[in-house]
Amino acid sequence: MATTTDPTSTGAAGGAHLRNAGLFGGTLPRWVPPALLVVLAGAVAGVLLAAGAFNAPLLAVLTTVAYAVAITVASAIVENRRRATDRLVTAVVYTCFALAMVPLVSLLWTVLVNGLQRLDGYFLSVSMNGVTPSMDAGGVYHAIVGTISITGFAALISIPIGLMTAIYLVEYGRGRLKQAITFFVDVMTGIPSIVAGLFVVALWMLLFGPGNTNGAAGAISLSVLMIPVVVRSCEEMLRLVPNELREASYALGVPKWLTIVKVVLPTAIAGITTGVMLALARVIGETAPLILTAGSSAVAINWNLFDGQMMSLPVFIYSQVRMGGAINYERAWAAALTLILVVMLLFLLARLVSRFFAPKLGR
Question: What are the residue boundaries of the ABC transmembrane type-1 domain, all occurrences included (predicted)?
Answer without folding.
Answer: 144-350
